[in-house]
Amino acid sequence: xxxxxxxxxxxxxxxxxxxxxxxxxxxxxxxxxxxxxxxxxxxxxxxxxxxxxxxxxxxxxxxxxxxxxxxxxxxxxxxxxxxxxxxxxxxxxxxxxxxxxxxxxxxxxxxxxxxxxxxxxxxxxxxxxxxxxxxxxxxxxxxxxxxxxxxxxxxxxxxxxxxxxxxxxxxxxxxxxxxxxxxxxxxxxxxxxxxxxxxxxxxxxxxxxxxxxxxxxxxxxxxxxxxxxxxxxxxxxxxxxxxxxxxxxxxxxxxxxxxxxxxxxxxxxxxxxxxxxxxxxxxxxxxxxxxxxxxxxxxxxxxxxxxxxxxxxxxxxxxxxxxxxxxxxxxxxxxxxxxxxxxxxxxxxxxxxxxxxxxxxxxxxxxxxxxxxxxxxxxxxxxxxxxxxxxxxxxxxxxxxxxxxxxxxxxxxxxxxxxxxx
Amino acid sequence: xxxxxxxxxxxxxxxxxxxxxxxxxxxxxxxxxxxxxxxxxxxxxxxxxxxxxxxxxxxxxxxxxxxxxxxxxxxxxxxxxxxxxxxxxxxxxxxxxxxxxxxxxxxxxxxxxxxxxxxxxxx
Amino acid sequence: xxxxxxxxxxxxxxxxxxxxxxxxxxxxxxxxxxxxxxxxxxxxxxxxxxxxxxxxxxxxxxxxxxxxxxxxxxxxxxxxxxxxxxxxxxxxxxxxxxxxxxxxxxxxxxxxxxxxxxxxxxxxxxxxxxxxxxxxxxxxxxxxxxxxxxxxxxxxxxxxxxxxxxxxxxxxxxxxxxxxxxxxxxxxxxxxxxxxxxxxxxxxxxxxxxxxxxxxxxxxxxxxxxxxxxxxxxxxxxxxxxxxxxxxxxxxxxxxxxxxxxxxxxxxxxxxxxxxxxxxxxxxxxxxxxxxxxxxxxxxxxxxxxxxxxxxxxxxxxxxxxxxxxxxxxxxxxxxxxxxxxxxxxxxxxxxxxxxxxxxxxxxxxxxxxxxxxxxxxxxxxxxxxxxxxxxxxxxxxxxxxxxxxxxxxxxxxxxxxxxxxxxxxxxxxxxxxxxxxxxxxxxxxxxxxxxxxxxxxxxxxxxxxxxxxxxxxxxxxxxxxxxxxxxxxxx
Lengths: 422, 123, 492
Prior knowledge:
The complex is a heterotrimer. By secondary structure, chain A is an alpha/beta fold.
């Protein structure tokens, strides 16, 4: 039920975006009876509520939906599954009872500060955006410099524009989407500036968000200065050379009153860290077993808090699994601990989960370090998968069937991506 | 006299660069694709490029000031900005249900309706 | 022209102006403080490093030297009354070279002479035990336990709140454009002009920071110049929390206290500041050169610290006087008092300066009748994040707005946003500096929209009129109104 919190619960889910909602549903499907989703916003749905463009659900629903449509489907399904959803609330801490029960401290205006117990927890807090300080752009500190996601909130939910003459730093999808969005709202988008020699976003977005509107994409370029006293009045940009060092001899100024930063996402693991959960320094998310359980027993993680995804469909798949395992855990069902370490090899930036166990099916998510086409994913000596291309911006997902590991000897499975000669 | 048009296929992330040779409105040849999605895309983009679009309209009486909407069929690419402009003239009042049709035949394009992409209750 | 005559008009609402205001509010006086920005403390004060210096390193021959130790000692009482964050974490002054030892010893002697408490000389082994993350090639350090840290803007807000509680009038968005004075020596008034009106006052206290010489020049009392000296500082990621426990200073040079490692009151590590004179009273830009300068130094001093740890950078301007010391005193214009050139250790000296200026005004003929009902204390802002769970429960029960989180990173609740506005916040930065919302890792990504909405509601202004810090710092702009524009078709 919406707005209700009773308890005790079997499973509590921290975060009511697509990951949290799917995890809750997964937990119910596994047989958990009482499931609570806690979300800090006024409505569940997470970031999808402001992602009004389409491109969601192609895999999961075989339809192309907008963010709000995708979110609404899951909120409806969660409520149909008799899951309690408490919005406007915040988990301020999680403690452990001696019998393993979790004591979750929840702050909400409706219920005040309460502690509720449950048997397992799913972390689904999503991620935050990288800010100016992270890349240390020198200059003044006027208003008008903000992340693309905050600008998206202003535009799509509050009904205000972040400015009128807009430059965008970072060619990730959020920046590209906002470029188009702002053009359709009558703004002038002067250009997208990208540090790398290739766009970080989907080609489809470069074509439909930039090319369609004649917005230039300046690759291998960075912002070298921010100007303006009270409000942004311009930026300076310069091409970058080897080592991404800006060539200051080619620095030039661009008039604009708004600079959107689309420079990366960071999983939101402040609480995870304070609980002592071990993090993977590459993903910046928890280290998880094949059941997506973190280093804290009975605490699971999924979605962007575990690693930054690009397709919400994959988030849903991952979260349904995490929720199912959390539900099983709550009912006392345990698996044997993982006995195989999964390690990233050549051209693999990371893989999740971090370990596997024999006798089960696994869903592996990974990212490559550099584009490669065509190529082959080599999973130890048990499996090979040919792909026509891999790019860092596109997460790779594949399944390992239970019997694939039957013959595996050893405790470490290494995954490599190697070029395939035509 | 033949002309050349370049497209980047968006069917999958490879993004094959496509070249379409044409004489007037007749397509002579399409090159550069690695699967037939590319050929189809180039043809569509040449003959009748269209785009799905989404935006927001003003809504009164709901939790937020904007209601997200989309078109039910793609709009000709060169009318996208005009379409947005037209959609922005709409103003609705809560409650609205996901799928409610707010405008039919946008810009006179038959079958291109504007629908709400979420439910917004009256607050 | 205003019909009322003020006893004192203070020009400048930085920490110095606010300290003077509070001191004067103990007496039966009609006082007004004129601040040019949208809120107090928005000039140099909010960029200040927040250090309460032990005071051993400024000679007694200077006014600075005489006021700093006195000021330092006043902070415990002030904290009790005004509830701002303050902790004596201690300070060390390190050396690497044996040849610097005599200077360090001289510093210790000077400190003892001045009455600085608790000074100790630490050898290498003691230093590496106490601060194990500092470079192992440091050979000795002078330890001064009376060194401390505060949030300077918190201090300014607390001072002005107390002053206002005791009758001081605050006018913000009030830059002084000119001052004229009656020719008559006795009973002559000073007329202080601002865009919002003219203030007639018997005495004017010029605490205008980097503009103090400009203000003094308006009456011809500028026998000093202010050379703004820019300092860039860098706030570092919380992962470094605890990497040093005390303020870390090198030996001072003539120009600057040096590049420091500062564990701020809130626990974040800050490094800097640089020190470069600039001719521009508005130049608060940060630079690659500044960052490189600081980090090439700091990483050698404390190898755990790396430039990639920066979460935000900012710069401020010190109001350095050409005389090399504070310029505090009456001038050839009767009633016009300069309080200029207050740079390091200005913050530490602030309470002592407040008293000193009151004495000067008394000497200049201002009648000082102490109030019997002076309210020395303020309640201080509620800090949900710092309360124990029991207290937190009570806070939420009493006010459900404590149950609504606005800033997720710093755990700041809606009730605290309202409290900040109740106490004068009118801008997003004003809210930020009063209750920390927006200062955390996401740097306002989550809370900004909420803060804008609350400010809009409370101040009765549309959301697009809410600014970052006043003036032209608008944040959002309304969407175009299609009914008033002409549609265009054609190729995009």
